[in-house]
Amino acid sequence: MDGTKPAMESNAEETQDEGQESKGCFECCIKCLGGVPYASLVATILCFSGVALFCGCGHVALTGTLTMLENHFSRVTSDHATLTMVIQIFQYIIYGIASFFFVYAIILLAEGFYTTSAIKKELQSDFKTTVCGRCITAFFMFLTYILALAFLAIFGFTAIPVFLFFNMWTTCAAMKSPDANITSPDSICVDVRQYGVIPWNATPGKACGATLGDICNTSEFYLSYHLYIVALAGAGATVIALIHYLMILAANWAYLKSAVSTHEYQDIKTKDDQDLEAEARSKEGQNSSSYS
Question: Which residue windows does the record flag with biased composition (Basic and acidic residues) (predicted)?
Fold first, then answer.
């Protein structure tokens, strides 16, 4: 009996140590998860997804559009040379947009981690934010506002090819519909020259009847049309992500400013309490000396 008692006590101590270690790991995990800026993380994922959809689908759709125009609407290379150059410029711009927003989203996510940690330490009186830190947050807020306006313009610009392809698709669908009762299908045409895509001297410049139906059945038209729709959705998602970032940055800046004001008030209050305590001690000392 005496030999089993120390063994039981040692087992109990080991179990208690294991429980404390597991509790410490759990508290550490909770502390780490509490420092994650979930709003910034969601905005970053949305920004990555939107930019990837816009850049990837937009790049392929532009290539398909150029191929379709060369094969069916402008067979002379010199007629669409300007359009080819513009499409290449847009594709290079897409490369730049993808690279820039990848880096910028990472920076904003890192800023979210920093600000979340700073706010918590500020409230715990363990850390003081600097004027430089608040100015950086304000700068990112201004830059994000400008980028949101720019991508809103890109969103509107992306809607133009969707509208043009939608017109062609509805025209082809009307020709195929049995309820249309079209007696002369060759009179139904789509002239891309009127949209300013190619010059007026381009040949043939338009497609009518069965030729138009064949164009709508090509893989270039089908793929480009749907890719433009996905690119438009990606641009919209990026705008939403930037607005989300803007709200996060504005809230973080307000929290930092409020935390600084609270910290200054606590410092002034602590100093006043210390002065009152010192004054009270001096009065007690004077009273004790007068009694003596």
Answer: 269-284
